[in-house]
Specification:
α1 crosses α2, α1 packs across α6 and α4 packs across α5. This protein has six helices and two strands; from the N terminus they run αααββααα. It starts with a helix and ends in a 20-residue tail after the last helix. The chain is mainly alpha-helical and about 160 residues long. The chain has one domain: Arc Repressor Mutant, subunit A (Orthogonal Bundle). Helices cover about 45% and strands about 5% of the residues. A two-stranded antiparallel sheet has the order 1-2.
Length: about 160
């Protein structure tokens, strides 16, 4: 499975929304500027994320988009599944086809693809948007207390 720009840019947009979690709606224009993405392309990506309930849209002059759930409750895998489809390196081991077999009566490589699928799922479902926010802080990409709103435990000086 190769992650396309849809998946990569979708994760970037969701990360941006996670960084602003609890701070009100964020415009696609501001996400596009911060992430270096096309605003028109973001419009295409945000629609399916809104349809499945990962983001909410807020109308009006101060409108934009907000995460529908806490950043800790949204994984990279959630975003990838919406924008890319099932996580699987080959069709015969797609998540919804577990237990089905290939057209061949015996497929010696199926177990390899199933293990690869399971590893991919474990990694993508093991990283939340809150984890991405923390990684951004740890790597110095954002200021120490910035991002992911009140849901992420922040270190305070005493």
């Amino acid at each position: 499975m190769k992650i396309s720009t849809k998946g990569r840019y979708g994760v970037m947009a969701m990360f941006d929304l996670a960084m602003a979690y609890g701070q009100g709606p964020i415009s696609l224009k501001s996400i596009a500027e911060r992430q270096g993405l096309s605003e028109n392309y973001l419009e295409q990506l945000i629609a399916p994320l809104r349809r499945v309930g990962l983001v909410h849209s807020i109308r009006g002059a101060q409108g934009g988009y907000v995460l529908a759930r806490d950043p800790q409750a949204v994984t990279v895998g959630d975003v990838i599944r919406v924008l890319e489809g099932p996580i699987a390196p080959v069709d015969c081991v797609m998540e919804e086809r577990v237990g089905e077999y290939c057209a061949r009566p015996v497929c010696v490589t199926r177990n390899v693809w199933a293990k690869l699928r399971d590893s991919m799922i474990r990694v993508l479902d093991g990283i939340s948007l809150a984890d991405l926010c923390q990684d951004a802080r740890d790597s110095g990409l954002v200021a120490g207390g910035e991002g992911c709103g009140p849901s992420v435990e922040m270190k305070t000086e005493e």
